[in-house]
Amino acid sequence: MKTYNKPHTSYKEQVHILKKRGLIIDDEERVIKHLNNISYYRLSAYMLPYKQSKDGIIQDNFVDGTTWDNIYDLYVFDRKLRLLVFDMIERLEISIRTQIIYQLSEKYGSHWQDHKEIFKDPKNILLDNKKYVKKDVFSEIQKHIEQQLRSNKAEVFIKHYRNKYNNPKNPPSWMCLEVMYFNHLSKICSGLKNRSDINGISKHFGLPPDIFCSWLHTINYVRNLCAHHSRLWNRDLNIIPKKLNFSKNRIWLNNPDTVRRSKIYYFLSMLNYLLQTSSPNSSFKSRLHTLLENYKNVVNLNSMGFSQDWNKEKMWNFN
Question: Is the entire prediction scored with pTM above 0.85?
Answer without folding.
Answer: yes
